[in-house]
Structure formats: structure tokens, C-alpha cells
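Human: For the file, kindly provide a plain-text protein record giving the amino acid sequence and the C-alpha cells, at your earliest convenience.
Assistant:
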Amino acid sequence: MPPVRRLLRFFTYSVLLLLALWAFWLEPDSLRVHRQMLELTRWPQACDGLKIAVLADLHIGSPWNHVEKLQKIIQRTNALKPDIILLAGDYVIHGVLGGEHVSIETIAAHLKKLQAPMGVYAVLGNHDWWENAERIGSVISANSISLLENKSQTIIQGECRFRLTGLSDFLEGPRNISIINEDNDRQDALIVFTHNPDIFPLLPSGRIALSIAGHTHGGQVNLPFFGPPIVPSIYGQRYAAGHLDEGGEQRYISSGSGTSILPVRFRVPPEITLLQLQSGSSAQE
């Protein structure tokens, strides 16, 4: 074989090996804080600067997402000093290649250490429903975390007041969208959070300041120029990750920290999402 071809083959194999190491080890084992400022039209000035930490798709037990990683996530989240923490579901794993199941009792005992003056709130994800939604919800509630499955809570701190509504999972849960109108004071700003963003187009317009979800993992793989080839959403890449302004309706999808099916992440690093909210006439990145 000519030297040039040998060199080219060596280079090609080396690049493929490095990409594999990055996608199946280095990036899935990493953790970043993704900070996002959002300017909302339906947000009170008294609540300007509110910091929301979103932890989505922890999938504890998936490769590189062991209990030690959960402890790191909790420590870094608390260090950010968020005003409120939202847990957007999928705490456990189901059918992840190379995964090892971790009980919700163990997971919730660590999540109990999360600290935020306005509280820690949770909804369930499809993996939680597949395992045992009633038990998982009960254990989470028993560990000082408020479970908002089709429930609302008025949040008040000083002059800041808003309404937080949690909706059950779009695929597996008994979602009750009507609670947004039935159980909320229309004078209060409203934040809705859920697991799966596919519920967003079903939400009433002109009412919600911000809708938050997880579930998609950002597709786990984001190819240059093409984006994520696979997104677990009926809307494809539309709800892959990040901030969206859909006709004045503000949405945010966290790419989360765990993995599902395959233990791979490429250009979608595991993240703690920190949203800071401001009142204004338009949304900005």
C-alpha cells in the first residue's frame, strides 16, 4: 500500500476513534450550566431577575449518569442559587444500553438536597410512567419535593407573585390542560412546565408567560449543518432544544443531562439549565 494511502487510512481511523470517544464517553460524562436570559411580555416587573433552574431527563443509571453524577448536579445547581427549581421528569431509566437501574428511593434521597427559596417542584416523565408513576410520585413527594401533576401552586416571595402549573406527560400521563384555565387566577403571571414539549401546541394562547419542558435530550446528537437527525417528537426538530418564540408564545426545552436508548451525546452536552426572566415586549436570546 502506498505511504500516502496508509497515512490517509491512519488519519481516518484516528478521527473516527476520537469522535467515538467524544460521543460515547467524554461528552456524556461532562456537565455544563446553560444560562439563558428570557424577556417575557406576560411577566411582572416585581419578578424581574427570577432564576429558574431546570433539571430534565436525569435518567440516573444510564451510562455516565450514576449517583455520583447526580450529586455533582445537585451541588452545582445549589451553587447557582436559583429562586426556584423545576424537575421535568424521567428520573429513572428504561431499556438504556449499558445502563444499571437505580431505585427512585435512592434518587429522591439525593434530590431532597436541592435548595431554592421558592421551592422545588416536579412532574413525571414517560420513563417514570413506564416504571411505576404512582410509586415514583409518592417517593418524590415524601422527599420534600412538590409534585405538580396536573396541579397549580401560587408562588409568592416579597412583591413577586406568579402561578406555577405542572402538566402530566403528553404520551403517558392523564394530562389535563383545562386546569390552566380552571385553576389559575388570570391576574397572576403563569409558568407551565411539563415533560414532553409536544403538548405545547395544545396549550391556550395569550395566557402563559413561559412553557418549559425536557424529554427530547436535544436529540442527543446534533450534526453540523444538519442538526439532530432523530428527535423524539411528533414535530421533529421543532422542539429539539432551546428557546422558541411561537407567535408570541414563549417556550423553552432543556436538553437535560441523561441519555436514553444509546449512551451517546454529540454536540449536545449534558446540562443544568438556568433561566433568568425579565419583563419586556419581546423575547431575546
Remarks:
- The two ends are 53 Å apart (CA to CA).
- The longest strand covers residues 32-40.
